[in-house]
Amino acid sequence: MLYFSFFHLLVEDVFTISELKPELCFIMQGDYVWLDLKTGREFDVPVGAVVKLCDSGQIQVLDDEGREHWISPQNATNIKPMHPTSIHGVEDMIRLGDLNEAGILRNLLIRYNEHVIYTYTGSILVAVNPYQLLPIYTPDQIRLYTNKKIGELPPHIFAIADNCYFNMQRNNKDQCCIISGESGAGKTESTKLILQFLAAISGQHSWIEQQVLEATPILEAFGNAKTIRNDNSSRFGKYIDIHFNKRGAIEGAKIEQYLLEKSRVCRQASDERNYHVFYCMLKGMAPEMKAKLGLGLATDYSYLTMGNCTACDGRDDLRDYSSILSAMKVLMFTETESWEISKLLAAILHMGNLRFEGTINCTRAGCFCIVEPKDVMVCLTTRTLITRGESVATPLSVEQGLDVRDAFVKGIYGRLFVWIVDKINAAIFRPPSCESNLVRRSIGLLDIFGFENFIVNSFEQLCINFANENLQQFFVRHVFKLEQEEYNLEDISWQHIEFTDNQDALDMIANKPMNIISLIDEESKFPKGTDATMLYKLNSQHKLNSNYIRPKNSYETQFGIQHFAGVVHYETRGFLEKNRDSLHTDIIQLVHSSKNKFIKQIFQADVAMGVETRKRSPTLSSQFKRSLEMLMRTLSVCQPFFVRCIKPNELKKPLLFDRALCVRQLRYSGMMETIRIRRAGYPIRYTFAEFVERYRVLMPGIKPAHIQEDLRGTCRQIVLARLGKYDDWQIGKTKIFLKDHHDMQLEIERDKAITDKVILIQKAVRGLKERTNFLRLKSAVIVIQKAWRGYRCRKNYQIMQSGFLRLQAVYRSRKHYRSYRTTRLRVTLMQARCRGFLIRQTFWRRLRAVLTLQAYTRGMIARRLCQRLRAELQHRQEAERQRLAEEEQLRNQMTARRAKVEAERKHQERLIQLAQQQEEREREEKEEARRKKELLEQMEREKEQPVDHSDMVDRMFGFLGNSGPLPNQDGRAPSFFWPLGGRREAEEEVMNEAPPLPDEEDEDLSEYKFSKFAATYFQGVSTHTYIRRPLKQPLLFHEDEGDQLAALAVWITVLRFMGDLPEPKCQLVINDGSEKIPVMTKIYETLGKRTYKRELQELQVEGENSSIESQKRNSVRHKLVSLTLKRKSKITEEVTRRLTEVDYGLQGNSMLEDRPTSNLEKLHFIIGNGILRPVEEDICQPHKNPAAVLVGITGTEH
To answer: Which SMART domains does the record cross-reference, listed alphabetically (predicted)?
Structure first.
């Protein structure tokens, strides 16, 4: 029967494995997989996970974010195996086997959690903002990364700067580094780090290097501001071109700025600030200078409080203002120019506080611009129109007046920023010498805004995304070129690889005739042009273009463009006004009438155009387009390096990784386009040694790579055998190039080959194990089966007979129920089948558990029955021996026939007596069972009573008070008392073959308590409560008399330990050197089951041949003494002599009967019995059961 069960389990396991999906066949516990949750959200990608459990019909996985998932075989398509390179991450993501969004995202996540923020993708550096200071920018790091190639050291921003510098020197070619990313991703910090590295590595430490570095604080003060996403957000793009002489020293630089966010001067969003320079000036300017300008606190000005944020954590405006002033001095700003800049900034703040309430107080604002306040008031309240040579003044509304004020302020700040950039360039730019024939080289740093897609996108987003389209086109072409170069270097035959080109989007936006930029410019030049007419022209011209998304109806004011990173919808309201970027004639006249030379200087170009500024001034889009074309021409002649800055979260917190946010940035930055280009070629590349080591298992007989001579030939042999001759794979000079499906095919075949070998080994090992177990259990199973089958049949017959009437009732009700269920089953068929499947799974699991329990139970019952039969057989054999002995004795007194008859008569009497004794024992057992059942019921009732834990502790440990002079009042028990008991209990559980079962009466086995155990198994009238007198018999039944004597000896020692029995009065001193022997050594020498048995046999022989006086000496007390220690011990002989001469008056004695002993010696004796006699004493003794220890010490119930 057990053989059939084992075979059934083996077959079931094989069947379960064969039912799994192909994707799950090779997934084991501990494997890493990709888990696709399929949420349907735009920026959700598969997440990495590790398999925790896979042998229960379902797969339990733990993903990278710490969440658990259960995957059923029906949803096996949700998980895919993870490539080994994606498990622990790589420094260069080109080496990733899972070259997709999920693979790149997990690689960045693993490294980010390890405080490694830089990762390569070829020559592209991906930098994740750590939002904390890391000790990786020290001078030692600069020296470490000097003159090192990419890949020699871990990824670092210094490695990119170093390669830019030394490539420029070695190749004599201009270099550029394009730094892109969202606001808050770390572009500005990366730019500063590259500048610091270049200044340090040039080795000159000249004045021009200091000037280049000092330009950063000024540009940050006037061009950076606190936003929701970033505390130091650059609100403009810049390209810093650093010039080097032939020795590699910095000799100059030039800065180009793009698209400053001028609207921030007039309005800010909630929790955002204006540009840093305003707060630094109000915080750091001397009080007397502030008094001259009429300045106060930042909270006093409307332009600085719109965002309800005037302070920024982590920035010190006072210290920054000192840095600005010192940087201006280094960059040759005069005191007059610095003062004029402060006056203009003060004028902007005062103009922001203007209120239209009948009259306008323009005194302060006009004073700083040195214009008449009356002219300022006229400019802000009226507008002059020239019609047919005549000027007509029309009044403005309050809203129009505020718009004019804001336009004037934006014009002042925008032209001031341009003037500051020109001033910095005048200080740091050195024109090339005409006499020198050497062409100087440069390194350009482009810190540009990343792709933007907000809820509401306006004209600024169109320009920004147009710039990113150009950079993406440049990026794709460059990366594709590197791909081609590697193919050429490896000398492989390949065809042109098609890739997605965003040139069509660029043509639609700015290149082809009637493009979007030109249409916006054209409409901006019409006096009556509106945003609606512009949108109409865009729809008419580009409605058939696949990259243009027209409005759904005529009421919408948005149009969409399909960019490389996704669709962006632009709100056209305000497009033309922002594109014109021109000041009204009245404002130009006001500036022209000013006596301030500085304001005239920054408005010089506008004043020179005269009154026709509106018609002749270039639009903002045309200026931006022209600047962008110059930038792309500059970049095209340079060798580029790319730095992609990633913002891990919106909360600016360290070690917080927002997966959706990072996926969006990777997608918008064009990283996915790089992956797509790699996929179009041969993205899987192995060196010959790596390929042979990984896939040599596919062909038997191939040696490891390190002992191979022709690795190229071996690789060709493997791919020809597995991929075929005509498949699209290539072997280069040092690498083998494969497609994605090749890698998948080879991985599947490799897993299958390894799995076949594993299954073969498992089959042999499991077969040997099962055969061994089968042969060992076969003989026992046959006996158990015979007894159990007979018992089972009888039991089933009784149950069927007693329940026949009940079955009839159940059958009739079942018949009516089935009639009802048939109708209902048509509706709930699928549900019933599903539930039936789950129930069957649960049933088979429980059935296997029940079979196991049954096997153990049957074994226990059989062993008990065997023990009873053996005892009965022994009694009958003993009676037969006595009959033969009596017959032999009677033959000497009478004839043989009479002797035989007389012996037979006495034999029958003894058999009848044995039968009566058996019946008496059965009655006593029934009575004992009844009494124990009543006791259990009483204990259950007592269990319901509340327990006072304080009283219980006092009763348990109250005897541990102050230590007294008596040897039995030593205070606390040893600290190792409890662990010893716990360990002994664990050994007993291992040694017991099967748990004991109670009688067949119905009783609750849900809880196992000491009281229940005592009531069930203790002999006589013994209960679970502690008694303070020696026992007449052991608590548990022992067949061996030596075990009974040992149990009684231990109990007497426990009573002595607790002080419930007095110590012996005799003092025996034996000076034979034994006092120096450790107590445990003596116990080991004198204890043991063999000693007890041998001594018991000798006593039995002596008892049969000795007189009545000898029988008295061999009483229970004498046996305890003689069996406790070996006879050869002098202590044993002396104790025996004294106990035979003196009537001690106790029921039993211990091994320490001859002298008073310490508690430690008693404890050693108790523990020694537990160690050396593994089966001799019941588990209720203190040294075996912690629960019994409490009973023994306190004398209360457990």
So the answer is: IQ, MYSc, MyTH4
Closest by CA position to 581, among listed 263, 170, 253: 263
Q: Binding residue per annotation — 102?
A: no
Which one from 129, 190, 202, 230 is the annotated catalytic residue?
A: 230
Active site residue 294: no
Q: Which of 184, 670, 732, 1192 is catalytic?
A: 184
Q: Is residue 223 part of an annotated ligand binding site?
A: no
188 a catalytic residue: yes
Query: Cβ neighbours of residue 1003 under 8 Å, at least 6 residues apart?
Result: 933, 936
What are the angstrom distances between the C-alpha of 60 and each of 51, 57, 560?
Answer: 6, 10, 44
> What confidence tens digit (pLDDT) does each residue in 261-270 have?
888 898 888 8
Q: Is the pLDDT of residue 767 over 90?
A: yes
Of 91, 452, 770, 940, catalytic = 452
The verdict on whether 234 is a catalytic residue reads yes
CB-based burial label for 193 (10 Å; 0-12, 13-18, 19+): buried
**Please, are residues 118 and 130 in contact by the beta-carbon 8 Å criterion?**
no
556 a known binding residue?
no
Strand arrangement of the beta sheet that strand 558-563 belongs to: 548-549, 558-563, 566-571
Q: Is 182 annotated as a binding residue?
A: yes
Q: Which of 900, 1119, 936 is nearest to 1016 (CA)?
A: 936
- Give the residue-averaged pLDDT of 1134-1142: 43
Query: CA 940, CA 935: separation in Å to the nearest integer?
Result: 9
- DSSP codes joined into one string, 1103-1140: HHHS-HHHHHHTSHHHHHHHHHS-TTSHHHHHHHHHHH
Tell me, yes or no, if 183 is annotated catalytic. Answer: yes
Of 107, 188, 518, 714, which one is the catalytic site residue?
188
- Return the DSSP state at 696: G
Which residues in 364-380 are b (16+ Cβ under 10 Å) and which e?
bbbbbbbbbeebbbbbb
What distance in Å separates the CA atoms of residue 265 and residue 273, rounded to the nearest whole number? Answer: 9
Q: What pLDDT is recorded for position 732?
A: 87
Longest CA–CA span in the chain (Å) reads 172
Structure token pair of residue 738: 């494969």
Specify whether 450 is catalytic. yes
Ligand-binding annotation for 294, yes or no, is no
Is 187 known as a binding-site position? yes
pLDDT value of position 1173: 61
DSSP annotation of 657 reads -
209 is in an annotated binding site: no
Residues in the chain: 1198
- Provide the residue type at 1095 as one letter: E
- pTM strictly above 0.85: no
CB atoms within 10 A of CB 1092: 24
Q: Quote the pLDDT of residue 405.
A: 86
Lowest mean per-residue pLDDT among 462-471, 897-906, 1083-1092: 1083-1092
pLDDT attached to residue 324: 93
Give the angle subtended at the CA of 1124 by the CAs of 1123 and 1127, to the nearest 5°: 65
Contacts (Cβ under 8 Å, ≥6 apart) of 565: 451, 453, 468, 472, 667, 668, 669, 670
- Three-state DSSP at 40 gives coil
Indicate the helix (H) or strand (E) that contains 390.
strand 390-395
Phi-psi region of 543 (alpha: psi -120 to 50; beta: other; left: phi over 0): alpha
Q: Is-catalytic flag, 230?
A: yes
Q: Spell out where 922-1048 has E strands.
A: none
pLDDT tens digit sequence for 924-942: 888 988 998 898 888 888 8
pLDDT at 535: 92
Q: Exposed/middle/buried for 560, CB within 10 Å: 0-12, 13-18, 19+?
A: middle
Residue 202: active-site member: no
